[in-house]
Structures are given as C-alpha cells and as structure tokens.
Write a structure and sequence with these properties.
Shape: globular
CATH topology of the largest domain: D-amino Acid Aminotransferase, Chain A, domain 1
CATH superfamily of the largest domain: ATP-grasp fold, B domain
Strand order of the largest sheet: 13-12-9-10-11-14-21-19
Number of domains: 6
Helix content: 25-40%
CATH architecture of the largest domain: 2-Layer Sandwich
Structural class: alpha+beta
Number of helices: 19
Oligomer: single chain
CATH class of the largest domain: Alpha Beta
Length: 690
Amino acid sequence: MAGLWVSVGSLIAAGQRGQRSPQQLMRRVALWTLKHASHYSRHHLMVTRSLCSADSYSNEKTFDKILVANRGEIACRVIKTCKKMGIKTVAIHSDVDASSVHVKMADEAVCVGPAPTSKSYLNMDAIMEAIKKTRAQAVHPGYGFLSENKEFAKYLAAEDIIFIGPDTCAIQAMGDKIESKLLAKKAKVNTIPGFDGVVKDADEAVRIAREIGYPVMIKASAGGGGKGMRIAWDDEETRDGFRFSSQEAASSFGDDRLLIEKFIDNPRHIEIQVLGDKHGNALWLNERECSIQRRNQKVIEEAPSIFLDSVTRSAMGEQAVALAKAVKYSSAGTVEFLVDSKKNFYFLEMNTRLQVEHPVTECITGLDLVQEMIRVAKGYPLRHTQADIPINGWAVECRVYAEDPYKSFGLPSIGRLSQYQEPIHLPGVRVDSGIQPGSDISIYYDPMISKLITYGSNRTEALKRMEDALDNYVIRGVTHNIALLREVIINSRFVKGDINTKFLSDVYPDGFKGLPQVANWELSIKLNDQVHTVVASNSGKTFSVEVYGLKLNVTSTWNLASPLLSVNVDGIQRTIQCLSREAGGNMSIQFLGTVYKVHILTKLAAELSKFMLEKVAEDTSSILRSPMPGMVVAVSVKPGDMVTEGQEICVIEAMKMQNSMTAGKTGKVKSVHCKAGDTVGEGDLLMELQ
C-alpha cells in the first residue's frame, strides 16, 4: 500500500510541474488509481463518511437550478448533492415547515400551502407555480408525495421542465401493481401466484382469496410504503382488509384499486437497486436486505444481504435489469423481491424513485445515486459498466422514528426536540436527517427523525459501529425507537442472519418490552385486610420471592394481557387467572378456583398511601379513548345506538395508516365526542357508554 501512495505522490508532483488545474490533477489521480489499484476499495478513495464527490465531474453541464419537491431528510439529501455539483436549489414548504432545515439549506424557498399534505406537498398547482416563479429547470421529487405520480410528471413535461426520474410510461407501468406484474411475467421475471385483475368489491375479494388459497395479501394497486396493504387468513379478514386497504389507498394515493395475491409466509424482503439511462443502458447495483419490518414498513436495512450467494444475487440482478429494460427505465429505481428459505425469489413491485434506504447501496458501491439521477435526467449515458460495480464492505441503516416502540413496535409520537445531537463524531457513521434542536414532529408528516447509517469492512464491524452510534445518539423531547433498534441489532438471530419479515413478531410475540432488568422490591401486599411484607427480585422471566423467611422461585412468560397465566413455583406448574388489575395496585386474581382481591404497593408507597384520598377508578370498559394522535376519518355510531363488544366505533388515521377503534363492552352509546375530520391526541375521549 505504501507503494501505491508513493506513485500517487509522483503523479501529483508531475501535475504541479505541468501547471495543471486542481480539477485536472484530481481527475488524473483518480483515473490512475482506478487502473492500478483495483484491489483497494473505491469507497475509501472517496472522502471518508461523505457522499461520493462530484468534483471529478464538475465540467459536465447539467442544470443551473433544481426545485426539490419534498421535505425533511430526503430534501436535505438532494440539496447536498446539488451543492456539490454546483447546482442552485429551490425548496418548497408548508407554512408549518417555514423554518425547517431543508428550507434553510436551499438557495430559495417557496411556501406552497398549509400543513396538510393535500394542500401543500401534494398541491401540484402550487408547486407548478413555484417552478415558474423561480425558473427552475428541473424537479427532483425525492420519495413519497409526488415521486411516483405520473400526472405530475406529465405537467412538468408540458412546461418543458425536466423530471429527475423515469418517464411517465415507466411510472405508470411500474406504479400500477397489476400492470407491473403482467410486464414482469412478459420479461420472464419470477412472479407470485395471484389474481392479475382489479378486485371490484369485498364479495369478489373473498371469492378470489378462496381460489388462490389462504393466506392472501390484499394491497393497493398504486400503493407502496406498506400503506393500503393487509394480510388475510380467512373470509372475514378479507372483507375487513378490502375495506381498510381501499380506504387507505384512496387516502394515500388517490386510487382505491386493489389486487390480491398469494401471501408467502416467513419470506425475506430483498431488493435490487437498478440504474438506467436514456441510451438503453441499465445496471444492477447489488441488493439490500430489508426484512426487519413492522406493519409492512422497513425498520432496519443492510447491504449486502448475508443470505444471498453470488449465483442468486446475479440471477436477481439480471431479472431486475430485464424488467427495467422492458419499460425503458431511465433513472434510479428498485425492484423488490420476496425470497423464501430455499432462495426462490418472486417479484413484488418496482419503485420508480429513490428509495429511503439508498445510502447503504452508496456505501458499498461508492456511487452517489442522486448525482447519477441528475446526470441521467440531463441525458448523459451511464459512466459505469456492470463489471465496475463492487461490493466493498458492509453498511447497515436504522430508521430512527419518533415512535413509542413499546406500543405495537412503534405508534407515532409528537412533540418538539428539546435536545438533539447526532453521533457523526464516530468513525463510519452517516446520518441523513432534516431536523435540528427545536424542530417539531407533528401529526401531519412521517415521524422519521433520521436515517442512521454505519459502514464497516464487514458486517461485524458495521453492526458494532451501529451499537456505538445508537448509544451516542441524543434525542430529547419526543419518544423514539432507539431501544428497539438497539436490541434488534444485538439479537442472536439477527446477528446470525436468521431473519424474515416476521422477525419482530416472532422474537417479541407479546410486543417489545425492552431489555430485561434485574430489580429488587420490598412490597406491601394487602389480602383479606391483612398486610404482608414480601421481598422480590428478578432476572429476566424468573423471580425470587421471599415471604416470612420462605424463598420461592417463580417463572412465567408474564403476559398480563392474557386471561391465563401459566406459572412455575419451585418446579410445580400452576395456572392463575388475572381477572383485573389497576395502576393503583389493585388486582383481582383467581387461584385454585378462588378469587382473591389484593392490593400491591411498594413499602414506601404503602406508607404514604394513608395520606392519599381514594380516587374513584375510571370504568375503561364504558369509555373509548384514542390510543394515539391522529385524525378521525369515520364515526360509525351516534348517541342512543346499541353496540356490542368488539363493534367498530370509529376509524382513526395516523401517519396514513387506518386503525379501527372498537367498543369494550355491550351497551348503549351515551355520548360521542368526535366527528369525521377531527384531530385527536393520545388519550382523548372518543365515546362513552351508559
């Protein structure tokens, strides 16, 4: 390696004697290095922990000004590359985003409407007016919002504005899951068995599901990002899935068409990054492992996949390129596959945009995908051949969300960041974010705080760096999911690569609880008007209990949400029923056929409780409160209606996911405290029963 740098030094010295410009000199060094040092990682020839440098291509004329039709971290990501390429940028924003980071980074900014996305970031008329006002030559859509909207691309084309993405034909073909599946079959891409038409109604959905065979996946034809997607295991779930998927699809994409296909149980979700130009060239840039998901949305991604061998990787890549060429694809895009335990792979969908998880591909290939998209949009051919695309090292990405991981692996949290510090001082760490101290996480937009990426020479190093990065990440003011991310990356199954799309529910069947803690309590237990002192300590699922000098070891799964608890007491198996429990320490249990009412407090709480007034407990079965912040999209009852336990009362949409709220018991509706269109917070009262 020392000889390599001596030779590079000689080139520099020769360049200085010849009075070459710095750009010419750097280009000459880069070309020599690529020729003579193929064994050395190109990624490490770039600036450490940065995106690919565009300095070597500064002579290429692209655009003078680009409007970024997005917000948050992806808008910041696009603006960074534009700055490196010497391109001026225009940010758009809603009124509540006026002081956002992406607005401050851009050279110009235009407000396109109020907070709701339909009136701002999806407001095509306002965005077109911003383009005209700023005289932007091209638009980068980022991901989400209008990134896969063919009508937006058509509007731009009509005004001679370049859309930095594929043409409208490719967007339409791949954006429609029904048409894309037919095209994939024609291109000889492996596809999942299913119904290739549009499902008309719930009855037809049930008929099709029975023909395919349960379980089935119901999903939006124009969808993506896990929205408008439901798994159904029987007729009833198919009917409910059809209703909710169509509603979510209409809300998220303005298109309620659905398709149904066979659900492949326990698959891996592995995707291939592709890149095409307007000259018929297309490449595959290796794979990304995206199997760690919750509610069909990715949480942790990595590149490459620990599961694929070179033969399977090449087969998947070649099929992805075949599909891209079939639709004359010209930009960065992603072909997603489901892969079973035998490495059989099936086409899932193609995303005609830049993916959220694109940084891990950039880390192992050394390419700046945003730069490549801009070059292709201007009409330049690809600069690389398939043989040029390396796999150098390993990269892992964690999506850091403002979510409570202890609630369904992540229900949205809102608030203001009172303190925020990214761990970018650590080696091999990259953070793509669009926030700063004081930023608000609101109900209007995706709760993502950032994408945390670590890079290493191998998977072990990348994961260790991720551990350190998560430990050094400072986030105050909102609940976040770092506890979940941190535990997943050290889980033995994950470390071995034994993962699939059901990983979270398999590893945490009762929900995420956090790391087990060793704790000791001195408790005061009141039973039949007598108070007993008990000392308890635990490690994981095992408790050591001491009462009146007698020590017992008690082990259970401790799922208090279950009506039955199987408990092992010093080797003797017992079954206990937890009939009720309250936060104040009151609990009703059934043991050996007898119901016991006990009051359990810590010793200190018991000593202080005599000074407290007793609070009348709220009858939670007679009321319905919102479990999360969101918007009420439908109310199914009115005062005076009779409802049964489990009957739907209303539907709340949070981050474009619809959630059915149901009655806790049978009774008559006393009052309804919400209506369609209302914004509600966590804990807000929705309905009362008599």
